[in-house]
Amino acid sequence: MLGENALEQQLAQARAALRDVSRTVTPRDRVESVAEAADGRIRVTIGTDGRVSDVDIDPRVLREGSEYLATELRHAVNGALDGQDDGAAEPMPDLAAMTATVERLQDESLRQMREISRAVSETMRKLQRD
């Protein structure tokens, strides 16, 4: 069983390691993504900054009417935006929040460990007197 000082030292090391990781982790870079709609007659490109960088519309698609154009343009933009997510399989965790939670839990654990240790010591003293 770990003594109180050894436990505190391990918890301090764990906190330091978590802080180090949070400093070195960088968000994933976005990639350019392209999507097409209206049988390839509408093409939308989303740049690495996450903004629409190019919209290419074949003039023949205009004959289909404004509702059709709006619907297909929306499909192309949403498809290109969805393509931005391909590089990121899962969202980046909030390491600062995780660090704060771990520190709070560790502090609470130490407090409880001290209380348990005091209770055990007191019980042992009572048993030795009897």
UniProtKB/TrEMBL annotation:
An annotated Gene Ontology molecular function: DNA binding
One Pfam family matching this protein: YbaB_DNA_bd
SUPFAM superfamilies reported for this sequence: YbaB-like
Protein name as catalogued: YbaB/EbfC family DNA-binding protein
Lineage: Bacteria, Bacillati, Actinomycetota, Actinomycetes, Micromonosporales
